[in-house]
Amino acid sequence: MEAELKELRQTFESGKTRSAEWRKSQLKALLDLIHAHQQDMFDALNADLGKHHVESYRDEVGVLIKSLKYMLENLDQWTKGKKIRLPPVAFPGSAELVPEPLGLVLVISSWNLPMGLSLEPLIGAVAAGNVVVLKPSELAPASSSFLAKTLPMFLDSKAIKVVEGAADTAKELLEKKWDKIFFTGSQQVGRLVMTAAAKHLTPVTLELGGKCPAVVDTLTSSRDLKIAVKRILGSKFGSCCGQVCLAIDYLLVEEKFAPELIELLKTGIKKMFGEKPLETKSLARIVNEKHFSRLKSFLSDPKVEASVVYGGSLDEKTLYIEPTLLVNPPLDSCIMTEEVFGPLLPIITLNKIEDCVKFISSRPKPLALNVFTHNEALKQRMISETSSGCITFNDAIIQYLCDTIPFGGVGQSGFGRYHGKFSFDTFSHEKPVVRRTFIVEYWFRYPPWNDDKFALLKRALAFDLLGFILVMLGLRKE
């Protein structure tokens, strides 16, 4: 490990990765890799998670192609310095912000989107000019093996390395000194990452997730309601079987509206996954026996069993769980206190929909908050009175596909952000560069102090160049 890290450091110190040509060559090579091995990526994702290739393209492969093209289109502009206005105290002078790479970056990815969550931060780190160690999740072994085998065939192996292994490998990596750590995973492991990073004062980005609620108001249009149901089901069951950080964790709905919504959800599940969901090719499976047992324990909780109104079938041999609806499970049960991360959807009823504001704000800040409503007053309250990594009205998960807005959490759902320009910024240091001349020297900047200097300093530190000049010339009194 030491030899590999030394080589990476030497590559970075050589200045090679700072070149815009090098950065673009690596991004283009990664794009070539995806085009050449798209079917291999589909096969790996199917082996790890039972994903249909269309889902794999929508959530991972296609997203990566889009991200790479967006990065290549904008990289030249992002690497330029930005001119910055200075106050009169620095006149005559100029300033700019120049992005520079951080150095040696560690990316530790998660198993639920094993291609996307590995390569998306890698794209940002390379675009910013860093050298990178990628540690894919061992819980998605086919995807990890694909990345370890294929990336060196296309990318600069002296600047980008893949390290496979289990928790002990991650622990060993975290003991090293890095210039940036980017971690996607659970809050529990996120705490361990932060603890390790603190030893070297390494900056960290944590993408952690949490319980993401969806508020479903009584939509007056039957068409809009059917679309809302489709988007809810797509988020919960159509993306890795609910095993994604942005998946809707539970619904909040008015009690009088709940029966109608539940019937629509049942009908929608049948349309998407058929009468026998465990036999469909459109439903991903649970990643492993450990996570399957965790979800099974949620349903076998005596306090929760009676709340199941649809689904609940399990197949331990194939690790498939039927999309399941639950109504008002106890709020102190595990399914309502832990992130579900699976195809179980609790529905919590409220006396009136406005009660959702207090319900959400009294709990840990979610990664995403989804609100299906036509009520503009409710929308404004959700924006101003709740806190979340992002808020989406009348859809779910769509924000993950948008390069022009940042993706990231707040509070326990994580911190730091990426995607598009925000990925470039996350892996860069925006260095201020100030340029001055010796032509002008301001005597009032230095002791001994007096009231005349005080008057001039007040003008000099404000963004009022004309006023400053007039005071200097004695044409205006302070």
UniProtKB/TrEMBL annotation:
Gene Ontology annotations of biological process type: aldehyde metabolic process; response to abscisic acid
InterPro entries: Ald_DH/histidinol_DH (IPR016161), Ald_DH_C (IPR016163), Ald_DH_N (IPR016162), Aldehyde_DH_dom (IPR015590), Aldehyde_DH_NAD(P) (IPR012394)
GO molecular function: aldehyde dehydrogenase (NAD+) activity
Aldehyde dehydrogenase domain boundaries: 9-431
Reactions performed catalytically: an aldehyde + NAD(+) + H2O = a carboxylate + NADH + 2 H(+)
Keywords, sorted A to Z: NAD, Oxidoreductase
One protein family per Pfam: Aldedh
Keyword Oxidoreductase (UniProt): yes
Active-site residues, record numbering mapped to chain: E207, C245
GO CC term (a single one): cytoplasm
Protein family (similarity comment): Belongs to the aldehyde dehydrogenase family.
Protein name, as recorded: Aldehyde dehydrogenase
